[in-house]
Amino acid sequence: MKIAIIDYKAGNIKSVEAALKRFGCDTSLTKDPQIITSADKVVFPGVGHAGAALEALRAAGLDTLIPALKQPVLGICLGMQMMCRHSEEGDTPCLGIFDAEVVKFRPDNGEKIPHMGWNQITALKSPLFKGIPEGSFMYFVHSYMVPVFEHTAAKCGYAQDFSAAIAHDNFYGCQFHPEKSGNIGLQILENFIKL
Amino acid sequence: MLAKRIIACLDVKDGQTVKGVSFENLRYAGDPVELGRAYSDQGIDELVYLDITATNEGRKQIYSLVESVAQNLNIPFTIGGGITSVEDAENLLIHGADKISVNSAAVRNPQLVSDLAKKFGSQFVVVAIDAKTIGNQWKVHTHGGKRPTELELFSWAKEMELRGAGEILFTSMDHDGHQTGFANEALCRMSEMLSIPVIASGGAGEMEHFRDVFNKGKADAALAASIFHFGKIKIPDLKGYLKEEGINVRI
After folding, report:
1. Which of A4, B76, B83, B141 qualifies as a cystine partner to B88, CB 3.0-4.6 A?
2. What is the CATH number of the domain that holds A66?
3. Cα distance from A65 to chain B (closest Cα, Å)?
4. Catalytic residue flag (residue A177)
5. How many domains does chain A have?
6. Residue B41 belongs to what H/E stretch?
7. How many CB atoms sit inside 10 A of residue A20's CB?
């Protein structure tokens, strides 16, 4: 199985790459449209600032390529947020695959920002979560979030309920880091590979 | 609900873990990856690898260690020790570090923390602070606690937050090694003053100390080394205990 990991210099991709390789996938870290388009699956990672991410995606022509992909695409963390319509972070227009706004957490009881650490996901509804128990702990690191909307595939609660995962057609997104979420996180990656 | 985190700290010298480690069924306790995996299997939430290598030659081995940890473990880990520049941090990121921690270098050059946060994001930057009380004030120390500075703990922690630190790892030198509990009063004050997570370090000896550091010290995470390494407290026991005490932990 060929998996393209989109390379736009957005944070640490070693772990996700290693995890996919462990499942026997042939991974390439790339921004080459040809390789991305012809891959069986695409992983869209990302950590960092939405504005900088958009700039890097535009420079490589990926802002128009990614929304047109037909194979399963998994956005992780900032990658998931970039698949939405717009982010409050730097007032950044995003790729518009999901009609959702990325907003900053609004602490209502002294919650610390970033939301960092292990939190539980619930209301799981996507093939991504096949065999994953409700209430499983996943590792999150983020200050902005996607509120719950029609394509929310898993919820998490921190100050407010937000989308821990989103899914629609061939596009999937996880706000948490499956590659950093222990064996249960690996199972989610494996589910994605098997889609 | 966000879980309170339990973190194990491993000292690394010339690419090998040091300090006596008595893990059952572990063939190479000196192998940072194998030791990390043993902790991960036990349910540790995060690992900190602290590079105490003194030579530049030895330091380079940290990159292959980081790469190997990133490839073999799937929980978050932090690398600390000897990071003095944006370039050092970038090399660690490229090799797969999730976070880096800076301590003395931040005191020498506070702008480093701003630069790191700007370039890599706050989530990547942990500022470690070693402090002890002198008179009635908490004073920041550098160089592994050997050198006192004029900096006062709480204002320093605040400055680090404002400069973009994503977490503060506070070690109380007054408590470290005594195994009589964490510096809960100071931790509570720091935690309430900051809007970023605080990791408590120094003083863990009993499971009750972890309960207290979360309930009284308001810490977001607690770090320990020798009591875990020597098996005095086992991670599954600790987490089971904390859960019974009503503290939300990942099990």
Report:
1. B83
2. 3.40.50.880
3. 26
4. yes
5. 1
6. helix B32-42
7. 23
Note the residue count of chain B: 251
- Strand (E) positions, chain A? 2-6, 26-30, 41-44, 73-76, 86-87, 92-93, 101-104, 115-121, 136-142, 144-145, 152-158, 160-168, 171-174
- Supply the range of the domain harboring residue A182: 2-194
| CB-based contact A141:A160 (threshold 8 Å) | no
Give A109-136 pLDDT, tens digit per residue: 889 988 999 999 999 999 999 999 999 9
CB contact under 8 A, A47 and B121: yes
CA distance B125 to B78: 9
Closest CA to B76 of B66, B87, B63: B66
What span, in angstroms and rounded, lies between the C-alpha atoms of B2 and B122? 19
Residue reference for tokens 């006192």: B148
**The pair of three-digit structure tokens given for residue B70, joined into one six-digit string:** 């990133």
The structural domains of chain B, ordered by start, are: 5-244 (3.20.20.70)
**Looking at per-residue confidence, does A108 or B151 come out higher?**
B151
Whether B222 contacts B210, CB under 8 Å: yes
- Both tokens of residue A74? 């998994």
- B72-92 burial string, b = 16+ CB within 10 Å, else e? bbbbbbbbbbbbeeeebbebb
A114 preceded by cis ω (within 30°)?
Answer: yes
Partner A contacted by B26 (CB < 8 A): no
Residues of B involved in catalysis? 11, 130
Q: Which of A72, A66, A67, A58 is nearest to A25 (CA)?
A: A72
B2 close to A (CB below 8 A): yes
pLDDT digit string (tens) for B202-235?
A: 999 999 999 999 999 999 999 999 899 888 999 9
Rounded to whole angstroms, how far apart are CA atoms A130 and A93?
32
On whether the CB atoms of residues A138 and A117 are closer than 8 A, the answer is: no
Residues of chain B with pLDDT under 70: 19-29, 54-58
The reply to whether the predicted model has a pTM over 0.90 is yes
Residue A119, chain B, CB below 8 Å: the answer is: yes
